[in-house]
Amino acid sequence: MTTSADILKEAARIVRTELPKHLSGEFAINGVEAESLPSPDDEDYIHVNVILEDNHPELDARELLDFKQAIRPMFEGAGVEPIPAISFSNRSELSR
Fold it and tell me: Per-10-residue mean pLDDT for the chain, 96 residues long?
């Protein structure tokens, strides 16, 4: 099963729109990328990577969990399934 480009765009849009509501102003989001990847059981899953500008405070695990729980209904309502896995990277960690 391949996830459509529209679903990936919607997953990225939801994260890009909602995440600033859960992080302090000390975090600058450089980008949000969504992709469909195969899992070991041959089912696709959606991975959303949030790219943060460097030199931000440490991410708070409780805030991230609250964020992921808050957006779950948004994913479901938009037909984004399976619910995406979300990870965070610093811009300097990405290859150029």
Answer: 87 97 93 93 92 94 95 96 94 80
Its pTM surpasses 0.85: yes
Strands 44-52 and 85-90: parallel
Amino acid letter, 63: E
Residue 7 has phi, psi (to 5 degrees) of -65, -40
What are the backbone angles phi and psi of residue 58, rounded to the nearest 5°? Answer: -65, 140
Amino acid in the structure at residue 73: P
Encoding tokens for residue 72? 């779950």
Question: What are the DSSP E strand ranges found in the chain?
Answer: 29-38, 44-52, 85-90
Under DSSP, is residue 28 helix (H, G, I), strand (E, B) or coil?
coil
